[in-house]
Amino acid sequence: MVALSDEDALIQRSIEGDHAAFAQLVERYAGAVFNLAYRMLGNAQEAEDASQEIFLKVYANLARFDRERKFSTWLLSIGSNYCIDRLRRRRFAWLTLDDTVLTIPNPGKGPEHSAIEREERDAVQRALLRLPPAYREVAVLRYWHDLSYEEIVQALGLPESTIKTRLHRARRMLADALRSEGVVQEEMPLQE
């Protein structure tokens, strides 16, 4: 008999109706799901609502989870698809940034440095929100969740060539947007 990993055991117990086990899975992945939703949707409150909906979808579909896949990849694919659907339902294209996301300042840096970092982070978020949803989706999965190309292919069900093309275009669009905002002055390299 093969011993189940801690995560596999939590999944199995959740499928069997153990709500405490599912709560542990939620606790384990809440940050990653919120981060994905926030990067995709651009608003903290909407990301919080989306995170709850994503976990409801995960719970409802847990029995169909393919144990050969990585759970986090499957979870983030559900999250990504949910966010794309939510973006499609929107009637407007742009959102303002929600400043309620808290960051812990580095005590070794002065307020001027912190302000510059915050401005740069906000500029990156604005640039990310200007990307078409398909490009934003792959950029968030690759750069914020550090998924490999293979994991993105599994999560989105797209050919690797499509993923690479979208990432290349997303990097180009992000570089152009950051240049136009004055965040970067020279040509940014487009390689990873």
UniProtKB/TrEMBL annotation:
Keywords, ordered alphabetically: Sigma factor, Transcription, Transcription regulation
Q: Name one GO molecular function term.
A: sigma factor activity
Q: Where in the numbering of this chain does the RNA polymerase sigma-70 region domain appear?
A: 25-91
Spell out the InterPro entries in the cross-references: RNA_pol_sigma-70-like (IPR039425), RNA_pol_sigma-70_dom (IPR014284), RNA_pol_sigma70_r2 (IPR007627), RNA_pol_sigma70_r4_t2 (IPR013249), RNA_pol_sigma_r2 (IPR013325), RNA_pol_sigma_r3/r4-like (IPR013324), WH-like_DNA-bd_sf (IPR036388)
- Residue ranges spanning the membrane: these are none
Keyword field contains Transcription = yes
Q: Name one Pfam family in it.
A: Sigma70_r2
In terms of superkingdom, the source organism counts as Bacteria
Q: Name one GO biological process term.
A: DNA-templated transcription initiation
Q: Which residues form the RNA polymerase sigma factor 70 region 4 type domain?
A: 122-174
What family does the database annotate? Belongs to the sigma-70 factor family. ECF subfamily.
This chain belongs to which protein, by name? RNA polymerase, sigma-24 subunit, ECF subfamily
